[in-house]
Amino acid sequence: MLSTTGLVALTFFSVTGGPFGQELVVKAAGPLFAILGYLGFSLAWSVPEALMTAELSSAFPEAAGFAAWTNAAFGPLAAWIDAWCSWVSGVVDNALYPILLLKYLEQVTDVFSGDDSSALVARWTFTLGFVAVLTYLCHRGLDLTGRSAIALSYFVLAPFAVFCVVAAPRVRPARWFRVRADHHGTIRLRPWINNLFWNVNYYDSASAWAAEVDKDKWGSAMAASVALCTCASILPMLAATGASDRTYHDYHNGAYVDVARDLAGPWLARWIVVSAAVANVGLFVSEMSSDAYQLMGMAERGLLPAALAKKSPTRGTPTSAILLSACGVLALHSLTFEAIIATENLLYVCSMLLELAAFVQLRRKSPEFSRFSPRALLIFCLPASVLLLLVAAVQPPLVWMVAGALFLLGLLVYAVIGRTRRSNACGLHYKDLHEDWTAPRGTLASLCGWDDRFPSDARRADTTTDPLHSSSSSSAAAAAAAASREPLVRDLSTALV
C-alpha cells in the first residue's frame, strides 16, 4: 500500500514539481496580483479539485481513476471523452518540459540563446535528444515509487528552501504591492489566467493510485498536497519579488536563476538549474508513463487497437503506446510555451467540467458516497465551475479551433473504432470490449457500435453471424472478461509517475 507521504509526493509531481514556469505570472500582473492570484486560484480551484479527488477516489478504489467516475455517472461515451481529453492534454503538457528546461539552461549557457542557425540547431538537437532519451527510459521501465518520489521532492525543493532563507533578510514587504502598469493595463489577463491555472491543477491525476491507498488516508493526503504545492509556489515568489529590485519586465521562465545569482552568487543559480533539470525529467517521464499506460489500459479494455496493449517481452512496458505519445510530443514541441499552455488548459477544462458534473451526478445517484450536503455541494462546485468557464473564455479563437478539432477528432476516433472493430479494418485487431464500457441500447454510443462486447470466442464460432446480436451475453465470456479486467490507467506506483 502507498503511504500518505508517498501519495503527497507523487501528487506534488503530478501538479507542480516545483516553482518552475511561474515567473510568467509575475510578468503578466506584477507581484501583487501574482501572489493574490495564486492564493485565489488555490482556494477556488485546487481545494475543490483535491476534495473531489479524495471523495471519489475513496468511493472508487481502482486505478481507472477519473474515467471510472465519469463512466459510473454518465456512461462510456462521457468516459471516453474524459479519457481522450486527458490523454491529449497530457501529450500537450509533455511538450512543455523540454521548452521549460531550455529556458533555465539559457540562464547559465549561451549555446541555446539567440535566433541564429547554430542556436536553432542546438535547441532542436537538445529537444530531440531529451525526448529520445527519456522515451527510452520509459521503455526500460524507469520507476518512481512513493519512496523515490519523496526523495526527489526533497532534492527539487532544497535549493528553493536555501533561496528563501538567503532572501529573507533582504525582503521589503512594500515590493509585494507593486503592480504592472503599462499600455497593456494592470494585468495581462490571458497569460495571467493561463499560467496560474496550469500551475494549480491536475490533482485528479492522484486518482490513478486509488487502488493502492487506504480510504481513510485520502483526506489528509490531499490536504497536505494542496498545502505543499501552494507553499512550493508562493514562498519562492515571495522571496524573489520581496528581496529583489527586479520589476515585472525582468521576469521570464528561468528568472529565479537570475535572482538567485543576485542574492547568493552563481552557486545557488547553478543549483536551481540542476533542480529544474531533475524536476523536468521527472515531470516528463511521469506524464509520458501515465499517457502510455492509459492507452495500454484502453486497448486492454477493447477501446483501442490491441497493438497498443502489447508489452515489451523483456521490460513489460507498452512500447507502441510510449512511441505514440512521444510522436505527439515531437509534433508539438515547436509551439511556443504560451500556445501549449493555452491549448492544454482548454482541453483540461473540458475534462474537468465532465468530472465535476460526474461528481454532482454521483451525489444524486449514490448519496452515501458523499460527505457534502446539497448546499455545501453548490458552494463547492460553483466557484470551480466559474473558474473553468473563465479559463475557457480568455482563450483566443485559434486555440478554440485547435482544441475543438482535437475534441471532434476524439469523437470521430470513437465512432470509427466502434463501427470497424468487428471487421478488423486496416489489419487492426481489438480485444473483447470490457463490460463496463458497453453502451446501453438506444444511446449515441450504441449507434456508433459500442453496445456489444463482441467476444472473440463468438467471432470464431460463427464468422457469418452479426456480432451485434451474437452470444455477447455468454456467461463464460462475461466471466473471462471479468477475470481479466485491467485498469484504464496502470498503477503508476510501479511506473515512473
TrEMBL record:
Q: What is this protein called?
A: Uncharacterized protein
* Keywords assigned by UniProt, alphabetized: Cell membrane, Membrane, Transmembrane, Transmembrane helix, Transport
Provide the topology term for how it sits in the membrane: Multi-pass membrane protein
TM annotation in the entry: 117-137, 149-168, 221-243, 267-286, 374-392, 398-417
The similarity comment for this entry is: Belongs to the amino acid-polyamine-organocation (APC) superfamily. Polyamine:cation symporter (PHS) (TC 2.A.3.12) family.
Q: Which domain of life is it from?
A: Eukaryota
- Which InterPro entries does UniProt cross-reference here? AA/rel_permease1, RMV1-like
**Molecular function terms from GO:** polyamine transmembrane transporter activity
Alphabetical GO CC annotations of the entry are:
plasma membrane
Protein source organism = Chrysophaeum taylorii
